[in-house]
Please model this.
Amino acid sequence: MSWTARELFGAVELVDWPGPERPRLHMVIDTEESFDWRGPFRRDARDLRALRALPGFVQRLEAFGLVPTCVVTWPIAVEPDGRAILGELLAAGRIALGAHLHPWVTPPYEEPLGSATSYAGNLPPALEAAKLALLTERIGEAFGSRPTVYKAGRYGLGPATAASLLELGYRIDTSGYPNRDLGADGGPDFRAMPDRPFRFGPGRRLLELPMSCAWIGGLGTCRGAARLVEAPPARRFRLGGILARLRLLERVTLTPEGFTAGELRRLARALVARGHRVLCLSLHSPSLAPGNTPYAPDVSACTALVDRVTGVLETVLGELGGTPATARGLLAEAEATAAPESGRPCLSPADGAAGSDRRGSAG
Model:
C-alpha cells in the first residue's frame, strides 16, 4: 500500500516564518539499533554497539552550536547501554529527544514481518497507535520526560498517524520526505507534499518539519522535468542519471548518507536561494561506526561521512549565514506567528510540492 501526500496530510497550512531571513539548520539523528539493512526484519535486533560513537559525534556538532534531536527506537529505550549513553547526553543538554517507531522491534508483536509492515502507517490504525503509545511511555520512563517530536521509521506515516500523535501529546513530526516516492517498497508517496514546514492533522495542530530533499540544477525548479525523469521510458533509458551527471537535474537529500560533499553544498545553496528558512540535516546513528550501514562500510568511509556533516555545517552556518536550531525551538518560533485568519485557504499537498517557490496560502 502506498499512501499519497493528500491521504497522509490532508489540508495543510504553510508556516509564514517569523524573524530574520537567516536560514535555520536543525538536525535529526535516527538513533536506533544496528541491523542488516539487506536482510529480513527481525524482532530480536538489539545491537547498540554503534551508539558508543554518538558522544564523540555530538561533541563535533557542539563546535557549531548545534544540538541534534535524537529520535530513539524501542531498543534504545529498553537496553541499559541506550539509556546510559542517551541519558547522559540528555542530562547535559547536549541533545534533544524524540521518538522513532520501528514497528518490527516494538510491541505489541501482532503483525507479520515484511517490507509492507515495516512502515507503521500500513498497520491497522489500532496496532500502530498501540505501538506508538508503548514506545512513548517507555521513552518517558527511561529518560524522565515524554517525547513531543516524532519520526516514523522508514518514513512510514499513515493516514491515522496524526490523530495518534496528537492523542499522545506530540507536537512535531519529522517523517515527511519531499520529492520521494517509496511506493515500490510499500512506503508512502511523498512527491506532492510541501517541501518546507507546515501545520497539518486535526485542527492543524502538528508542525511538520520535513526532510530537506529537492531537485536542483538548471532544471531543478521545473516540475515537468522531475516528472519526466521518473516516467518509465526515462527510467529505461536512464535519463535521470544523464541529467544528474550534467548537473542539470539532481535529486539530493541533506544527509551525508549516499551523497557527496559537492552535492550537499549545491543543495544547501539552492534551498536558501529559493527562500527556504528551515533546513533539516539527518543521518542514522549506526552510520557513525563502521560496518553497520551501506553508507559507512569501513573506517575510511565512516570518517568521510562525518567529514561531510562538517562540510554541511560550514556551508549553512558559515557561508550562508545560517543559525543552529532544534525542532522544539522551531516549534516555538512557528507558534509566534499569527494564527491563520478565519476562512484563509489552506494548501493541499500538491499546491506546496517541490519545484514551486510559493509561500503562504494557495492563491
User: Anything to note?
Assistant: The chain is about 35% helix and 15% strand. The two ends are 32 Å apart (CA to CA). Confidence is low (pLDDT under 50) at residues 340-348, 350-363. The longest helix spans residues 299-319.
